[in-house]
Amino acid sequence: MTGTESTRKRAQAETSQPELLVGLNAVIIAVTRDQPRVLTVGPQSATLGTASEGVPTASRALPFGPFDREHDRTLELCMGDTVRTQTGIELGYVEQLYTFADKGRDPREASGGSRVLSVAYLALLQETALSAADDATWEDCYEFFPWEDWRNGKPPLTEEIEARLLEWAESDAASSTHSDARERIDICFGLGDAGWDAYQVLERYELLYEAKLVAEYWFDRDQAPSQSAERFGRPMAFDHRRILATGLSRVRGKLRYRPVAFELIPETFTLLKLQHAVEAISGLRSHKQNFRRLVEKSGLVEGTGQREAKTGGRPAELFRFRRAVLRERRAPGVATLRPPRG
Questions:
Q1: Read out DSSP for 70-132?
Q2: Is 183 a domain residue?
Q3: Distance between CA 95 and CA 123 in Å, rounded?
Q4: Does 157 lie in the same domain as 134?
Q5: pTM score, whole prediction
Q6: Max avg pLDDT among 112-116, 299-303, 333-337
Q7: Looking at residue 34, what is its pLDDT?
C-alpha cells in the first residue's frame, strides 16, 4: 500500500464514511389535468442521512434513499420502502432506469464526503394525494424543462436558447470543437433540416449544462448562477434534473413500442383522455382522427359498452386497455407522432 493510499484509508476510518455510498432514486411520473407531473421531495429528504450543504434550499429533489446491503433483500423492495416512507405512495409500474455515478455529482464529495452512486428507477402511476412527508409535492415536469412542451407551438423560450447556444458554439469555450457543437445544437433543437426530436430530452439538457445556461452548472462549482439561468427551467438538487430528463426521455421513447400510457389513466377512459395523456408526455399534439384510427386499428383498446357520464354534449364512449395485445404484437405502442419541423 502506498503512502497516499494509507493516508486515504486512515482518513476514511477517522470520519467513519465509506468510500462509496449506494442509493436509489425514483422518477415517478403521472399525468394530471393534461400536464405531466413528477413527484418531488425537499433536498433534506433526498440525502443519505447527512446534511445537504451546498444544495439550494429552494430546490426540489427526487425521492432518494440508501441501499443497505445487509437488510435490503432487493433494490426494488428498497425503492418501494423509500418512496412509501417519504411520500406515502405505493408504486405500481416500475423499471430500472439508469445508474448515475459521475464523480462530484454530490457536492459534499468535494469536502471529503463519500462518492454517491445512484440506481434510478422509473415509475408511472396516477397522481394521488400525499399522506406522508410534509415536503413531498407533485410538480409540473415542464417547469423544469420549459422548452420541451410544443403542444401550443414552438415555445418562445426556444428562440433565446438557440441564440445563446449558437453564441456559445462560436465562443472560445467551444472553438476547438465548433463543428461538433454546431451539429449537436442542430440535432438537439431541430435547426435546419434536422427537425425537432421529442425523444432527446436528456441530450438537450446536457447541452444546456455544457453551455453554462442552467443553474446546476454553477451550483456544481459552488458559484451563484447568472440571473438568466433562472429562465432556463427550475433547478433541482444534486443532478436530479439530469435524472428526470433521463426518465422523461425513456417514457417518450417507450410510447412508440410499449403501452405505458395506460399506466397514467384510469382503467376506463375515453379516447380523448388517452390522447391527452400521450400528448402531455410527448409534448406534441396529434391529429384527433388519426390518433383514434391508430389506437383502434392496433387492437390496443376495447369498448366497455358504457359512455362517459357528463352533462352537456354527447357522452363519449368508454374504453379499456385490451391486454391480449401484449401476446399478439411485439411493439404495441400508442405514439407515431411527427414532431414539427423548423
A1: TT-S-HHHHHHHHHHHHH-PPP-EEEEEEEE--TTSSGGGGGTPPEEEEEEEEEE-------S
A2: yes
A3: 7
A4: no
A5: 0.88
A6: 299-303
A7: 95
**169 and 288 co-located in one domain:** no
- 169 and 57 part of one domain: no
The three cell numbers locating residue 98: 439508469
For 10, the grid coordinates are: 486512515
pLDDT of residue 11: 46
CA distance 53 to 55: 5
Phi and psi, residue 206, nearest 5°:
-65, -30
Residue 153 and residue 285: Cα distance in Å, rounded? 9
R_g of the chain, CA atoms, integer Å: 22
Does 238 reside within a domain?
Answer: no
Residues 6+ apart with CB under 8 A from 267: 320, 321
Indicate whether 253 belongs to any domain. Answer: no
Residue with the three cell numbers 387492437 = 299
Instruction: Note whether 7 and 136 are same-domain residues.
Output: yes
Are 227 and 284 members of one domain? no
Report yes or no: 211 and 165 within 8 Å, Cβ to Cβ: yes
Number of domains comprising the chain = 3
How many CA atoms, within 13 angstroms, populate the side-chain half-sphere of residue 102? 11
Residue 116, CA distances (Å) to 56, 148, 182 in order: 19, 29, 33
- For residue 342, what is the DSSP state? -
Report if residue 177 sits inside a domain.
Answer: yes
Q: Per-residue pLDDT tens for 178-209?
A: 678 889 999 999 998 888 999 999 999 999 99
Cell of 7: 493516508
Q: How far apart are CA 47 and CA 65, in angstroms?
A: 7
Of 54, 55, 98, 61, the residue nearest 82 (C-alpha): 61
Domain of residue 22: give its range: 3-142
- Partnered with residue 202 across adjacent β-strands are none
Contacts of 152 (CB under 8 A, 6+ apart): none
Q: What length does the chain have?
A: 342
